[in-house]
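FIELD: query
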Amino acid sequence: MILTFLWGLAQAGLLDALSDSDRHLEACKLAASEAEEGGDVTRVQGVWKACLGEATRLGYPDLETSLRAEISVGVERVAAESLRESQPHRWALRVLEVAAEWSTADFPSDVVRRTFRSWMGTDEGRAYVDPVRAVTVVWEAPVAPAVEEVIRRYIEDAGLKWANPGSPDTDCTVFARLDARPEGGASSAQGQLVVVRTTLEVSRVRIRARDATLKGFSATASAESPDQKEAEDRALRSVADATAQRLLLRLLGALFDR
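FIELD: result
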């Protein structure tokens, strides 16, 4: 299956665009995803441990922090698995407290997001997170309503709530700027490709209940297509996805005082 996946990337012309470490990580993600489908958290953990070992052997230091974060959370998932059905609040607390220790890491999987969404299905979880859950984005330069709707969709998909600017329900205010730049790309069978590079820069996050301000972060993604609108949409979705996960992790870090 992994070889089939990589062959598909090659056929699509995407494999050459990836670095060696990125290709390694993509193969690891696929193997871990297959293990997740089987519901075997111990096997998932084994995949990530093997991935880190191979990354170390091949000399990919850029993957080390992300993989160690994933493995740390995986250790707690295995240890707490017996609680997942019987005590979902306690299970999520244990897993997410570990994730919060890696609040500035980029997890290669969506394990944090999935666990958080599950936690928000419990009354205890919603009450616990209530002081930081509702998010307002204040744009430092105007964005189109359709663009903001994409950002909103990904933030809500992470298990957070959306609040419009000025709403009394706002718990966290994210100050952000979005920049999308089209560039000339290579020629292809479909025509001249357009490359769009999109960056969402968060300058700071203000948490009202804590009277605290978190440091900012940024997410950048590029996409290419013969159609500029399609390239813009793909790059925006990638940036929105990364931003939502990074915001969730920063808020977990604040929630658990990490």
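FIELD: remark
The mean pLDDT is 90.
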